[in-house]
Automatic annotation (TrEMBL):
<dbReference type="Pfam" id="PF00990">
    <property type="entry name" value="GGDEF"/>
</dbReference>
<dbReference type="InterPro" id="IPR029787">
    <property type="entry name" value="Nucleotide_cyclase"/>
</dbReference>
<dbReference type="InterPro" id="IPR050469">
    <property type="entry name" value="Diguanylate_Cyclase"/>
</dbReference>
<dbReference type="InterPro" id="IPR000014">
    <property type="entry name" value="PAS"/>
</dbReference>
<dbReference type="InterPro" id="IPR035965">
    <property type="entry name" value="PAS-like_dom_sf"/>
</dbReference>
<feature type="domain" description="GGDEF">
    <location>
        <begin position="185"/>
        <end position="317"/>
    </location>
</feature>
<dbReference type="InterPro" id="IPR013767">
    <property type="entry name" value="PAS_fold"/>
</dbReference>
<protein>
    <recommendedName>
        <fullName>diguanylate cyclase</fullName>
        <ecNumber>2.7.7.65</ecNumber>
    </recommendedName>
</protein>
<dbReference type="InterPro" id="IPR043128">
    <property type="entry name" value="Rev_trsase/Diguanyl_cyclase"/>
</dbReference>
<dbReference type="Pfam" id="PF00989">
    <property type="entry name" value="PAS"/>
</dbReference>
<dbReference type="InterPro" id="IPR000160">
    <property type="entry name" value="GGDEF_dom"/>
</dbReference>
Length: 317
């Protein structure tokens, strides 16, 4: 007699496999009562199958997203189709702690869930939940996404000031110009330039010059509204895109920026270094033929402020 083919042996092997596989397996009846709770689920929940047999899943685990999950399960019962739930839709169903050494920084286990109909001769009477631990995959993807976002930030930012760089800022100006043609909302460009930065470099060194640039960048950021966008435009100049801002409001901002600089001189090597700024302003109007012409007008206003003796505000409309 071949004992290896004994049905009881086969059943034993099947039960052993269900209990030891590295995925969670839960079987529920039509009323969502627990019929099977395998070793994976016991190990991670700390609750034995004997404690749960016949218990309603949602009564025993009230923290589960009951309405949402029941809706998914009803699809399985009625349509007899599998339903897949990705960790990207919902990081987990069962909040199990993460004990994996590689991804130890994750607080909980990220899970993919598959819901399967279990059919008998009388129809679909049970549903199976298969729970996969995908913490490694999830953490790797989240880290890659964060790294890509950080890289994008680096490509958009000026290293010295952490303001936007000129290339990215000009893309925003181009977009704003296109919006103006549709909505006609007042928008202004402001160019700001440090007067006589070369003298600071010559007298105190280039580190002092860099500190002056950073100091002005800080004051620019502090005086901007949330909707405004600033960049480092040149070696010692900045450009501001001011949304919903007309010439009068821009002039007030320019005066406020000059006043802030007067009130907070740069502290360098124990001494206060004072410097001034020239400002050019150009508000967008219907006569402007393109965003590049708008930039040229703002540059022209800045040049006029320089020629007028510096420490000036000039407006070109």
């Amino acid at each position: 007699m071949n004992h290896d083919a004994d049905p009881m042996n086969e059943l034993h092997w099947l039960i052993d496999m269900v209990q030891t596989i590295e995925v969670g397996l839960v079987v529920l009846d039509r009323q969502f009562n627990i019929q099977l709770w395998n070793g994976f689920m016991e190990n991670h929940s700390g609750i034995s199958p004997n404690e749960l047999k016949g218990n309603n899943l949602f009564q025993r685990f009230p923290e589960l997203p009951a309405d949402w999950l029941k809706q998914k399960m009803e699809q399985v019962f009625l349509l007899k189709n599998n339903v897949f739930i990705s960790w990207e839709q919902r990081p987990y169903i069962f909040k199990f702690n993460n004990y994996r050494p590689i991804t130890g920084r994750a607080e909980f286990m990220y899970q993919n869930i598959t819901l399967l109909p279990l059919s008998s001769l009388t129809g679909t009477s049970h549903i199976s939940m298969i729970i996969y631990d995908v913490t490694d995959i999830a953490i790797n993807k989240l880290q890659l996404t964060a790294a890509n976002e950080q890289l994008q930030q680096l490509t958009q930012r000026d290293e010295l000031t952490q303001l936007f760089n000129r290339r990215h800022w000009q893309q925003l100006v181009e977009q704003e110009f296109a919006r103006f043609s549709r909505y006609q909302e007042p928008t202004t460009l402001m160019m700001v330039d440090i007067d006589y930065l070369k003298q600071i470099n010559d007298q105190h060194g280039h580190i002092a010059g860099d500190r002056a640039i950073q100091h002005l960048a800080h004051l620019v950021s502090r005086n901007l509204r949330n909707t405004d966008v600033a960049c480092r435009y040149g070696a010692n100049s900045f450009a501001l895109l001011l949304h919903h801002c007309d010439t009068v409001q821009a002039s007030q901002l320019a005066a406020r920026l000059q006043f802030s600089l007067q009130q907070t001189p740069l502290l360098f090597n124990g001494s206060h270094l004072s410097f001034a700024i020239s400002i050019g302003i150009s508000t967008l109007n219907d006569e402007c033929s393109g965003y590049d012409r708008w930039l040229d007008t703002a540059d022209e206003a800045l040049a006029n402020a320089k020629m007028a003796g510096r420490d000036q505000i000039n407006i070109v409309e």
